[in-house]
């Protein structure tokens, strides 16, 4: 049986996950992804955490069921590199949603974004 190696070219380490990469390269690629997409760090922002704690007890803005997630009304990807980025966590851009409503809204936005 052939020995499997990390899928990263030139790496001789064995993979330790289902993605075929070793721990070192999985962490490096994750860090690279986060550096390329700064809005992924936005969820650890103290302003967002404060807004999330205030909104989590409210019902879903679309169906009225208990909310499980906080949604950016204008997606972070649309705000990035605009003059509106500093307002990304303002209450007027956040709404509580249940998981099904949030998933539906996200799928709809992603399908509209694709050509």
Which segments are poorly predicted (pLDDT under 50) over 5 or more consecutive residues?
Answer: none
> Which word captures the global form?
elongated
Q: DSSP helix count?
A: 4
Instruction: Evaluate the radius of gyration.
Output: 19 Å
Question: What number is the mean pLDDT?
Answer: 81
Helix content: 25-40%
For the largest beta-sheet, the strand count, sense and barrel status come to: 2 strands, antiparallel
Oligomer: single chain
DSSP, total strands: 2
Structural class, please? mainly alpha
Instruction: Tell me the span between the first and last alpha carbons.
Output: 44 Å
Sheet-strand content, in percent, reads 5-15%
What is the string of helix and strand elements? HHEHEH
Taking strands numbered 1, 2, ... along the chain, how are they ordered across the largest sheet? 1-2
The figure for the number of domains is: 2
How would you describe what is shown here?
- The protein folds into two domains: 13-42; 45-113, no CATH class.
- The protein contains four helices and two strands; from the N terminus they run H-H-E-H-E-H.
- It has helices at 23-36, 46-55, 76-79, 99-113; strands spanning 69-72, 94-97.
- Strands 1-2 form a two-stranded antiparallel ribbon.
């Amino acid at each position: 049986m052939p020995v499997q190696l990390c899928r990263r070219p030139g790496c001789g380490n064995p993979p330790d996950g289902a993605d075929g990469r070793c721990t070192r390269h999985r962490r490096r690629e994750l860090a690279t992804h986060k550096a390329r997409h700064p809005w992924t760090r936005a969820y650890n922002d103290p302003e967002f955490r404060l807004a999330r704690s205030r909104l989590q007890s409210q019902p879903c803005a679309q169906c009225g069921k208990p909310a499980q997630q906080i949604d950016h009304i204008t997606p972070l990807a649309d705000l990035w590199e605009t003059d509106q980025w500093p307002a990304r966590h303002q209450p007027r851009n956040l709404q509580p949603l249940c998981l099904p409503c949030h998933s539906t809204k996200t799928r709809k936005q992603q399908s509209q974004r694709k050509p």
